[in-house]
Amino acid sequence: MTQRLPESKALQVVIVDNHMIVREGLRLILEDQGDFAVIGTASDGSEALRLVEQARPHVVLMDLRSPGKDELSFIEQIRRRWPDVAVVILTTLDDDELMLAGLRAGASGYLLKDIDRATLFHALRTAARGEMLIRPDVIVKLLASIPVGGQRVFHGQTWPAGRTKLTDREHEVLTGVARGERNKEIAARLGIREPTVKSHLSSIYYKLHVDSRASAVAVAFEHGLLPLQKGIVCL
């Protein structure tokens, strides 16, 4: 585990990967950009937890290895203990179930290691703003892997029995989140105040048993609450 002091006004990142050469390569890529500061690197989730507790970065960039259970647990712990710290998964595993599991654990996005630099930079900045990022092709893959048996219809979508229903307004807010809209954009589109949007989001999180925008959208897709649309949550 290594740690550095953050640069002034730079977006502070912690890198978690079990390969040292990958960690150092990502450090060089990010710091060469100028507005990123890699304030620490860790080889596993346990080191990452200690580092996040000490450094409180804006974003944790974390590898996810098969079967990924330990890393998913670490993501959940980070999100539960430090909800202002975003987690972005960067992995070689093009696995539908892991994508969904990572988002449900609280990750803001799921990226493959063959992405270009611009996409990586955009992803980290988006996550640091508290927004989520999912490529449209990932949404398609996730929807294709989700079973729909044993559910009942709600507003034209399937909804698991026993869950509290979302109101029409909450559904509209959640749809905006899935499109990648910010709170102020959702408020403007619906003709409501931004604090009202935040209140609706808090209610959505409570009803879906999640604590982040990405988790809410992942659960909503899993249960058919959100239809696939053009323009949904693009990188």
Provide a descriptive summary of the structure in words.
The structure is a single chain. The protein has 235 residues and is an alpha/beta fold. It folds into two domains: 2-133, Rossmann fold (3-Layer(aba) Sandwich), CATH 3.40.50; 143-222, Orthogonal Bundle (Arc Repressor Mutant, subunit A). It is 49% helix and 15% strand. The chain contains ten helices and eight strands. Strands 1-3-2-4-5-6 form a six-stranded mixed β-sheet, with helices on both faces. Helix 2 (45-55) runs parallel beside helix 3 (69-81). The longest helix is centred in the C-terminal third of the chain and has 15 residues, at 194-208. It is globular. Mean pLDDT is 78; it is low at 3-8, 148-159 and 229-235.
